[in-house]
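Shipment paperwork, digital attachment
Item: protein structure file
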Amino acid sequence: MMNTIDDMQNILDEQRKAFTAAMPESLSVRSDRIDRAIALLLDHKDAFSKAVSEDFGHRSHEQTLFSDIMPSVSALKYAKKHLKNWARNEKRKPTFPLGLVGSKAEVVYQPKGVVGVIAPWNFPVGMVMVPMAGILAAGNRAMIKPSEFTPRVSELFEELTPKYFAQDEMAVFTGEADVGQAFSALAFDHMIFTGATSVGRHIMRAAADNLVPVTLELGGKSPTIIGRSADTKKVSERVALGKMLNAGQICLAPDYLMVAKEQEQDIIDGVKESVASQYPTLLHNDDYTSVVNGRNYERLQGYLEDAKEKGAELIEVNPADEDFTSSNGNKMPLTIVRNVNDDMKVMQEEIFGPILPIMTYETMDEVVDYVNDHDRPLGLYYFGNDKAEESQVLDKTISGGVTVNDVIFHNAMEDLPFGGVGPSGMGNYHGFDGFKTFSHSRAVYRQTNMDVAAMGGFKAPYGKAMQSTLKRELKK
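Attachment content:
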């Protein structure tokens, strides 16, 4: 186990030395690394699925395959397919009239070097390997700190990675929060952190000491806005799917609903029916995920108790009327919370679990104002068939990304950038945007053989040529 600050610093030095010696990193080497990353995942997909389930207390085999393994493999394959086009030098136009006399300008995408990856527990495989597509495609080396809350997955990464990658290409460091703290203080060439906004602030402070550029994929409270024109049946089905997936432990889960007052009961009934249809039982249902640990279970129960004490109505969605108190695990049914307000913790903190507050509105202006009065979210969802209303919501709010008439799906589009804004994050990745995030866009200008400085009058002593240039350029 390599987890001391000296171990990590030594590997960083080794990777940077290997990176420098290999410059320029060929596309064939990058492509081979992507292939090896895909092989690591596919050769051990069942082992990863088992490890995730053990860490969570329970998570279905199929869910890990489609929510962790499949997106990772898809991202890596997409990067390999487009790598040659992404890596091409990009021609730019020299400032007029230099292009006319033979000057040339271009952007060259260079790898940054060694990228540090700090991953969360909710998708402990995917949040390591999806960004790895851009990291490897750009030609970088990688050092990885998986979450301490999913120790079996972390140990599996630590065990398997050396079988597919040399230590100077990719290395994994396991351990508790102190290891993560030391890891975040290393002088990487770039760092990507996925996790809570509160931790993201610490990551950014640590990175600042070494001026390490960071990509922060955080979270927040993603609003789901339901217009009066929406098909309430579809809304209910899609919200239920998005909220029940991984028991709501998704940074992009619909955090709270905003519904027209007269449609509130229809939406509540629809969500309840949709949950019952997808999950007739919960407690012993292999398809339904457990809350990851007791700490998070107690946090969620605390949100419910606080909301109830402050006047909210709790509606437990328990289709088979199961007794969750008899379970030794951390499974929770969905709880819909009515009559919420901003004094309640459930409306102050990212929920990250099977709790769904519902707010009502009279006008869409109220909705837009409410969203804008709070931190900018990672995702925003609008349901409706009113194009003017849709434009109002999208034009007058800011969020990391948007899905219209569904939830979460913008994250599954590999050709769209994924990232937050403000407290929900900075920077983005996926597809070409990820390649650019983990690349240095190097400006290259090739001067003509002509004496451009003399032509512009830039050589001292300044005279008529300089006066002519200034007169031409400094006019309205």
